[in-house]
Design a protein that fits this description.
With 228 residues, the protein is mostly helical. Helices cover 64% and strands 0% of the residues.
C-alpha cells in the first residue's frame, strides 16, 4: 500500500477544524526542527542563528491558526537573509534544511486560512523527506549506526504501519504523525494540545524523531556540523 494514495492518512486532516489543522502542521514541522536548531547552515546563506531561534520560538506560541504578527515578523526577519536572493546548490543535509524553512514559510502564508490542502502540503513534506532519506540510506554503502535496532523496530511495528512497506525513518515519521493526529482529534474543543501534558509527550516524540533524522544526515552530509 502506498501512503501517497491512502485516504486513511488524509481523512484525519479532513476531520480537523482550522485550529487543529494548524497544530497538525506545527507537529509536522516539529519533526523537522532539529534540522534548523542543531545543524549549522552554510555561511553564504547569511542566516542569523538568532533569527532561526526566534522563528521557532514564535512559531510555537500561538497555535490557533489565526494571524500572528509576532510570528510574521520572525518570518520576515529570516526572509531578509541573502539565501532568499540567490540560487543555491545544496548538499543532502542542506536540502533538508531548505525544506524545513519552506515549511515554515507555508505556515506563515496559511495563517488565517489553514485549509486542508495547505495542511496536507506541510504534513506530506515531512513524509516525503523521511521516505527520501530512507531511499538514500538504502542506496549507499555507508554504514549507518543502529541498523540492527532499525530492523528490529520494523519487524515489530504495528501491522497498519508495516503495510506501507516503508523504511525505518518513514515508518517512524508516520507513527509519530498518527499519534499526534489522534491526540489532536481527541482533544477537548478549542484546546491547544501542545500546551497540555499529552502535548508535551508528543513534542518529545517529535524531537526524538527529529534528532534521529539529523543523526542520519550527519553520516552523509558535510553540512551536518552542530549549530552554534
Amino acid at each position: 500500500m502506498d501512503w501517497r494514495f491512502d485516504d486513511v492518512l488524509t481523512d484525519e486532516i479532513r476531520r480537523m477544524d482550522r485550529a487543529q489543522r494548524h497544530q497538525a502542521a506545527f507537529f509536522a514541522l516539529r519533526r523537522l526542527q532539529a534540522l534548523l536548531s542543531s545543524m549549522r547552515m552554510p555561511e553564504e546563506w547569511g542566516i542569523d542563528p538568532a533569527a532561526v531561534k526566534n522563528l521557532l520560538q514564535q512559531g510555537a506560541v500561538r497555535l490557533d491558526g489565526e494571524p500572528d504578527y509576532a510570528f510574521q515578523r520572525a518570518l520576515g526577519r529570516l526572509s531578509q537573509a541573502p539565501l532568499f536572493e540567490s540560487e543555491v546548490d545544496p548538499e543532502l543535509g542542506e536540502s533538508f534544511q531548505l525544506e524545513a524553512i519552506n515549511g515554515w514559510l507555508l505556515v506563515g502564508e496559511a495563517l488565517g486560512e489553514m485549509s486542508e490542502e495547505q495542511t496536507d502540503t506541510v504534513v506530506v513534506r515531512a513524509r516525503e523527506l523521511a521516505d527520501y532519506l530512507d531511499g538514500y540510506m538504502d542506496g549507499t554503502l555507508t554504514v549507518v549506526a543502529g541498523e540492527e535496532d532499525r530492523d528490529r523496530y520494523l519487524a515489530n511495528v504495528a501491522d497498519p504501519l508495516r503495510s506501507y512497506g516503508l523504511g525505518y525513518i518513514a515508518t517512524r515519521n508516520l507513527e509519530v504523525e498518527r499519534r499526534c493526529h489522534e491526540a489532536i482529534l481527541g482533544a477537548t474543543d478549542g484546546a491547544c494540545l501542545p500546551a497540555s501534558a499529552l502535548g508535551h509527550e508528543l513534542l518529545v516524540l517529535c524531537d526524538d524523531y527529529s534528532c534521529e533524522v539529523v543523526s542520519a544526515l550527519r553520516t552523509f552530509s558535510h553540512g551536518g556540523e552542530p549549530a552554534q
